[in-house]
């Protein structure tokens, strides 16, 4: 059962619970119950003149509502219980007195040992669920991190593709090369620099270029350049594919 359901079953004014476990009331609901003739947009600022502080005693809430002429912004306020009690007292009429007595009764019940314990248990259960969800989300990252083994050794693109594939993301060398070009990590322009790391990749420390001298039969020497992914780059790209896989799973669900 919702913590506030016991009150809302016999509600005088609707109640809600915020993320920190405090009772809050809609400013517009309170305005309506009190039977205020002044428009809400004029009335509420007058109430704040009594010393209430935004983001401490209340927060502004707005939503767009369709109208024949387009959209209209409707502004409301989420008011804490203490502020609602004071506003009710300020009215100095029967409705104000009734609202104040109601809020006092709610506050007393809300702060009873039973309700405090109930909310504490619910908060603890919520944290356990959040932790379990985080463990499931982080599990693939642990697997990938183990595969890299925090090595300082640079590896070829094809070798990285094998590591990624072994850990559940289906990709081969050619597709990984294509992905690196498409995402601006390798130069896609045809020429002598084709498949070489871009300036961005080098500045991030993701690649190094392995140069190998080759002596040909006619005596001339040529230099063969091969992009290799550093240890930092391996972790960087592995995390990229983890993120992509998570997004794809979310989209499918």
From TrEMBL:
Molecular-function GO term, any one: DNA binding
Domain AntA/AntB antirepressor: 25-93
Residues covered by the Antirepressor protein C-terminal domain: 133-241
Name of the molecule in the record: Phage antirepressor protein KilAC domain protein
Organism: Clostridium liquoris
